[in-house]
Amino acid sequence: MAADQDLAVSCRGLLKTYGTGEAMVTALQGVDLDVRQGELMMLVGPSGCGKTTLISVMAGILDQSEGDCRVFGQDLMHLRNHAKLAFRARNIGFVFQAYNLLPTLTAAENVTVPLLINGVGRKEALKKAEQVLEQVGLGTRTRSLPSQLSGGQQQRVAIARAIIHEPRLIVCDEPTSALDHETGHKVMELLKGIAMGRDRTLVIVTHDARIFEFADRIAEMDDGRVTRVVTNSSQLH
Amino acid sequence: MYRIALKMLMGDRGKYLGIIMGLTFASLIMTQQPAIFVGLIMRSYSFITDLGLPDIWVMDPEVQWVDDIKPLQDTELYRVRGVAGVAWAMPLYKGLLKARLPNGMFQTCIVVGLDDATLVGGPPRMVEGRLADLRRADAVIIDIDGAREKLSQPPAVPGGKRVELKVGDTLELNDHRAVVVGFSKNTRTILSQPVLYTTYSRAKQFAPRERKMLSFILAKAASDESLAAVTRRIGATTGLAAYSREEFMGVTFRYFLKNTGIPINFGVSVMLGFIVGAAIAGQTFYSFTRENLRQFGVLKAMGTSNWMLLRMILLQATLVGMIGYGLGVGLTSLFGWAMRNTILAFKFPWYLLLFSGIGVTLICAFAALISIRRVIRLEPAVVFKS
Amino acid sequence: MFTRYLLPLLALAGFLFGVYMVVTGNKPIPVAEAVAQPAQAPFASFIAGSGLVEARSENIAIGTPLPGVVTRVAVRAGERVKAGQILFELDDREARAEEGVRRAATARARAGVEEAAASLKEAAILLQLAENVDDRRAISVEELERRRNAHAIARSRLDSAKAQVGQAEAELTAVRTTLDRLRVRALIDGEVLKVNIHPGEFAMAGITNPPLLVLGNLTELRIRVDIDENDAWRFRKEAKAVAYLRGNRDLKAELSFAYVEPYVIPKRSLTGDSTERVDTRVLQVLYRFDPSQLAAYVGQQMDVFIEAPDMIPQTAADRPPPDTRVLP
User: Fold this and answer.
1) What is the pLDDT of residues B206-235, one digit of tens each?
2) Residues linked to residue A26 through DSSP beta bridges, in sequence order
3) What is the pLDDT of residues C73-119, one digit of tens each?
4) What's the topology of domain C46-56+218-311?
5) H or E segment and range at residue C114
């Protein structure tokens, strides 16, 4: 399985159902997907197709009902809760559509959160946070509250937060859909430019066709399945 | 992470103040109302607490509380003195007599007659004069509050100051002359009647003729005897009821508990304070948590453990609890301080600090509990739902 | 800033203020010390009683046999008197007048005796003259009998007159006795404890309250101890006893047993109020003590402790302690 070494995420026959009995909803119906290390993979598809469920499983915040999902070779579902938390804290970065910054914390403080979770000291974390904010071009706004920042700036803070602890996998949920085209473009450039490192893998859920061009590969989903995987956005339509 | 928890809490100023106000209110009610209650109850047996020297009170077995006087025969005093382990025993007269003021007004007073020779049972503090002055002819000592209020006379000119009793003034007690020789500072009694001290034999002259006059026998246990053993022995040999000071306070206190509505009234107030405080603070705290649920979800997704979240919420609850408690206690103290020279019964013993502390802790624990339940059940996957 | 620092600071200040109020508001109430230390029994187990100091002779309430207005009080309170010494005198004018009358009557009776004696003498001479006549015809028998009778009558008259003198003298003595009874005297050596009469006051005969005069022998003081009848069974004659002066427990006297009055009497209330009803009886025991050991006055109350066996009957000791709770 030498090839598996290069895989960031490997999903086999993922099945996820919510609820039981008649109210049972099937979100994933056997997903097979590999994400290579260092790759920017986009998940696209109509809403309700299971994209969010899939990245939730990949990020280890949701357990699949059946199937196998390995992240950097780890079967998260069968890890002990504690180990799973530690794995997530160390290896996964999150970028959300609604930014999900803590409104009462300054930009720098928001950025430190993953480091704090990993047990890094506050001062050290703040220092690091300022560096990272500098990288995303917000070196002057470290003390601003999220409400004092524009949407794009907030998303950049979120990106800084996602990368500060140097995770190997960053999952992004519609990172640009709340932004105008230009800002979205900038955010994507940032993501691509800063986040993408040698062993950093990005999985981005989006239906924003304007940013497809940033993808290395695009997985199209429908009705709980990956219908196809393309390397070029032009192949989609 | 704790700093984050605190910032989350204080960042939402409205809710933060709401929670604290609720807790302050609860803590205020739970401290101030019991303080008044304790003040009233302590006044019910203030006559006993003011009398520090004797440690045993002997009385008729039917006596239910300190103002329920069922006099004894004078010879019982000597029988009590004869009980082994009694260092000394002294008579005490306590009764209600009408005092006639110089202007012809009448005022019911508590008259206390002390043993002529030793004057055991005197007032705790003298403001003017000495206790030994009671040995002078027709002498009485009056408590200063009574002298200033109930025993003072209306002003001579309209709008003027009330005329207070002075040393040397005379009163009439049951047609007998009484001369004021001093003033004492007493703890107020529950009905705030003026207290007059005089000697036992003089009190018997003042009092209307009765077959028995001896209200209480005040005794002291010998230093090498246990109080309980001596009171038991007095009871067994004389057939009288002998209580230690604390026991007699307890008897009086239980009488109040059983026979007056005071404890129920205050109990209801305290319960209302607790419930309203718990409702306001608990509800606001819970809604605060619910509003921040998404942020807790984010923290959870990023790898924060439930244990850490629990500690964060507990920290938040503890902080608001402590602030609310401190403010409530402070307001209560301010209230007590402002009222210190009024007739209001306000007593703030240490266990009320504990009591309201426990009350606030319960409210916070309750609020934290429902919040924690919610956060622990939270699926981190909600973070992806917009 | 307000929420972050001010509120916790305010809360801290409030709490500290509360603590301050607790500390200052709950200072222990000072204990009023007794003006004089109460007497404490020197025995482990004892009978306590109140004692009244009295004279060795008990306190003698002096009365007068005759009522009358006091004319002179011969003694002052505190004065020592000898037996027979006059204490006070009552108005004796009426008795003195009577004495004069009686004295005159005596003189008159004496004169009557002389008169009777003279009559007797005359009758005797006449009788003798008649008897010396030998001639029976010279004097009739009748005349002779008449003279004999006259002589006998005269002798009787003399006897009668003599008897009248005796009567008059006896009456005079009676009046003098009355006069003496108007002077009240001490019957024992002692000290005047109390004088309640003054010249001009009317002294009633019989028992008076207060007594006209109180007399007592103070060579030794006695103390009369009231022991509650409930404690009487514990009393032992040979037990040690100590009396303490009220008001100063350092002043005390060892007592030695004098006697016990084996008659339980109703307790006399020391308030002196006659309307007070009494329903306790007391055994009175008398002890003596040396007046030089303790400066006590007659009539003074003392606290007396008499050593006695432990009073708890075994059955009582086994009884449960009295219920200190309020009964419903």
Assistant:
1) 888 777 888 899 998 888 888 888 999 888
2) A17
3) 999 988 999 999 999 999 999 999 999 999 999 999 999 999 999 99
4) Elongation Factor Tu (Ef-tu); domain 3 (2.40.30)
5) helix C93-132
Tokens in use for C46? 């004892």
Site of tokens 């008579």 = B91
Given the DSSP bridges, would you call strands C241-245 and C301-307 parallel, antiparallel or unpaired? Answer: antiparallel
CATH architecture of A40-63+80-232: 3-Layer(aba) Sandwich (3.40)
Point out the residue among B295, B302, B383 whose CB comes nearest to the CB of A89.
Answer: B302
> Does the CA dihedral B74-B78-B81-B83 come out positive or negative?
negative
Map tokens 């000791």 to a residue: C317
Indicate yes or no: CB of C228 within 8 angstroms of CB of B49.
no
Length of chain C (residues)? 328
First to last CA, chain A: 34
> Thinking of the domain C60-88+185-203, which architecture would CATH place it in?
Beta Barrel (2.40)
B105-B106-B107-B108 Cα dihedral, nearest 10 degrees: 180
ipTM (interface pTM)? 0.86
One-letter-per-residue 3-state SS of chain B: CHHHHHHHHHHCHHHHHHHHHHHHHHHHHHHHHHHHHHHHHHHHCHHHHHCCCCCEEEECCCCCCCCCCCCECCHHHHHHHCCCCEEEEEEEEEEEEEEECCCCCEEEEEEEEECCCCCCCCCCEEEECCHHHHHCCCEEEEEHHHHHCCCCECCCCCCCCCECCCCCCEEEECCEEEEEEEEEECCCCCCCCCEEEEEHHHHHHHCCCCCCCECEEEEEECCCCCHHHHHHHHHHHHCCEEEEHHHHHHHHHHHHHHHCCHHHHHHHHHHHHHHHHHHHHHHHHHHHHHHCHHHHHHHHHCCCCHHHHHHHHHHHHHHHHHHHHHHHHHHHHHHHHHCCCCCCCCCCCHHHHHHHHHHHHHHHHHHHHHHHHHHHHCCHHHHHCC
Which tokens in the block code for residue B58? 């002997």
What the block records as the tokens of B31 is 């401290």
Verify B-A touch: 3 or more CB pairs within 8 A.
yes
Give CA torsion, residues B99, B104, B105, B107, to 10 deg.
0
Least CB–CB distance from C18: residue in B231, B235, B353 = B353
Residue type, B174: N
Cβ–Cβ gap A85/B385 under 8 Å: no
Flag whether pLDDT at C40 surpasses 80: no
**Ramachandran area for residue A13 (φ above 0: left; ψ -120 to 50: alpha; else beta):** left
Substitution target in B1, B384, B385 with the highest count of A β-carbons within 10 Å is B384
Cβ neighbours of B222 (radius 10 Å): 15
Sign of CA pseudo-dihedral C43, C47, C49, C55: negative
**Cα atoms in the Cβ-side hemisphere of radius 13 Å centred on C209:** 3
Taking the Cβ of residue B137 and every Cβ of chain A, the question of whether any pair is shorter than 8 Å is answered with no
Give the integer Cα–Cα distance in Å for A64 and A30.
10
pLDDT tens-digit series, residues A18-49: 877 787 888 888 888 888 888 888 888 888 78
d(CA A47, CA C159): 173
DSSP A233: G
Q: Which of C116, C66, C128 is nearest to C91 (CA)?
A: C66
Q: What is the pairing mode between strands A169-173 and A201-205?
A: parallel
d(CA C59, CA C209): 13
Strand A7-18 to strand A66-71: parallel, antiparallel, or no bridges (unpaired)? Answer: antiparallel
Give the residue extent of every domain in chain C.
46-56+218-311, 60-88+185-203, 93-181
Give residue C32's Cα distance to chain centre: 42
CA A85 to chain centre: 16
**Torsion region of A128: left, alpha or beta (phi above 0 gives left; psi -120 to 50 gives alpha):** alpha
Query: Any CB–CB contact under 8 A between B381 and chain A?
Result: yes
| Tokens of residue C300, six digits | 């003074």
